Task: structure prediction
Amino acid sequence: MLDGGIKVTRIYTFVNQKGGVGKTTTTINLAAYLAQMGQRVLVVDLDPQANATSCLGVDKLGVSGGTYEALLGDVNVASYVLLNERLRLSLLPSSPSLAGAEVELVDELARESRLRKALEPLINKYDYILVDCPPSLGLLTVNGLIAARNGVIVPVQCEYLALEGLGQLTQTIERVRSLLFPELIVRGVVLTMFDNRTNLSSDVVTEVNRHFPDQVFKSVIPRSIRLAEAPSYGLPISAYAPTSVGAVAYEALAKELLTGDKKH
Result:
């Protein structure tokens, strides 16, 4: 992450229009482990459901400002960033008001790049900014894609129909690349909910690797009861069950991402 001796912020956007693929789980747990490894990390919750906000122990109904204000207003976005001192992790929260943003942005100038512009004052204040998108391919997700200076990370669950919709997502990425952001890349694909008791999971791993050669992270996230429980306690897996199989997998993923980033 060094550029001429200066640390450069890496911005990754987590995207998949299918719900329930472990997108938010991957965002917050990867963020928590990167922070644990000494990185300055900001999670940006771009989903009106505010799951990342809740998973990090923040009441979405009590949020005074966050991504909605960042997208709609000319505000100092840093004033809405919340710091979790225990996790050494920062959060730009979401709230239900974000649901109206897509409609309100329709007539706005440069509406697709509002998030990218809003995050500019935070560049170099963090080593990593991780953006959690809603499970859709609407204007909020397009904002997330254009903000992704270093690429998108796509979580894919190891289940039947896992590849359904990936073609549509790929088309959206290509469209954004050709019309709005030529530098947009896929940083990697994360395989989630792997069950080693089934042949199906292994078949999906093989198929995803075939569709995305050299883009699939080697660290595979298993199905885990502890991973499913952690959000209800407002904690990432690193704090809730640090010795569980899910924790070990996400720690490995964070190390893999860090190692890869240091080479580029």
